[in-house]
Amino acid sequence: MSERRRDPLSGQWVAVAGERSTRPRVLRLPPPPPPPPAEACPFCPGREEPDTGIWREEGQAGWIARVVRNRFASLDPPGGVVAPPPSPDTLLQRHRLPGRAEVLIEGPDHHARIGWMPARHLEAAMRGQAERLGALAAMGFAHVAVFRNQGAMAGASQPHPHSQLVASWDEPPTLLAEKERFRDHRQRHGGCLLCAVVEAEAAGGRQIARGHGFVLLAPWAGSHPMELLLVPETCAANMSGVRVEGWAAIQARVDRLIEATSPGAATNMWIHQCLAGSDPFHWHAHVVPRQDVTGGWELATGWKLEPVPPEAAADLYRAAWDATAPVGRT
């Protein structure tokens, strides 16, 4: 059966069509190209550029996590001439998009993956993430996008484990839409929208597990096949008070879970949060194994197509969850 579902967080409609997952596939995506050798990696130890370094944590044999300026940023760096914005009635509008982009290198091992790297390395990286988030918020930025692209199909240009922080002076449309939904829910029903969603997802069989201070869900109306939603049990607008050890542990376990259920899949992780802690919001993270590409029907209609019903995805993830427990990661 095909049906439309509305994402309670974004308000966007999604088409769930489970029969699509059984269609015959003659054409398949080509395998990703082989990664460049470690000798060419700008993130490996010994290739540090002093003028880009921002933060690092040292271990016994050198750094174990560091933050550098992104030399190929998607936003203009601070400074320079800012052109005045066009008048509101201009047909073809444009504005300069300034901001600050940083790369968090999550360990010295070029071939590591976060699900299997030493726990102390990932915890160090998450301390760096927390420190840089605080610093960027103190600079007055309205928003900091925190995300990880792992694998070529997810948009990564380097295989060395890393994530990114991109700070902007404006909140993006996705966050503004979610904030409006949170405010509307509070006015109509009281309480937190996402806390209510967590209860509804558990009742509907889409809760996968609880652990490390987080609830893991296969969301009611995810925008990608096999999407996961990570919700902190503590209701807070942003990550400023997150326990680093728990945050690192749940990310590593989710990475192992995706590899167990979608072997070899590239993954995206992104976080929605409000730097202004007074906003009625509950921060959360989305994690997606990239298994398909957007097709013509989605482009023509604007509806995301979900070929794996979230209830089926939750069953698959629950069956694999226990096998992803950490063993010997120090």
Which characteristics define this entry?
single chain; 330 residues; alpha+beta; HIT family, subunit A; 10-stranded antiparallel beta sheet; 3-stranded mixed beta sheet; 6 helices
Structure description:
This protein has one domain: HIT family, subunit A, CATH 3.30.428.10. It is built from six helices and 13 strands. The protein has helices at residues 119-138, 173-189, 193-203, 244-261, 296-301, 310-321, and strands at residues 2-6, 13-17, 53-59, 62-69, 99-105, 143-150, 162-168, 207-211, 214-217, 228-232, 266-272, 284-290, 304-306. Helix 1 (119-138) crosses helix 4 (244-261) and helix 4 crosses helix 6.
Number of helices: 6
State which percent range the strand residues make up. Answer: 15-25%
Derived structural class = alpha+beta
Strand order, largest beta sheet: 3-4-5-7-6-11-12-10-9-8
CATH homolog superfamily: HIT-like
CATH topology: HIT family, subunit A
Mean pLDDT: 89
Order of helices and strands: EEEEEHEEHHEEEHEEHEH
What is the CATH domain class? Alpha Beta
- Report the C-alpha radius of gyration, rounded: 20 Å
Total tally of structural domains:
1
CATH architecture: 2-Layer Sandwich
Bin the helical content: 25-40%
Q: What's the end-to-end separation, in Å?
A: 46 Å
Q: Unreliable segments (pLDDT under 50, ≥5 consecutive)? A: none
Q: Please provide the count of β strands.
A: 13
Shape: globular
Quick one: biggest sheet?
10 strands, antiparallel
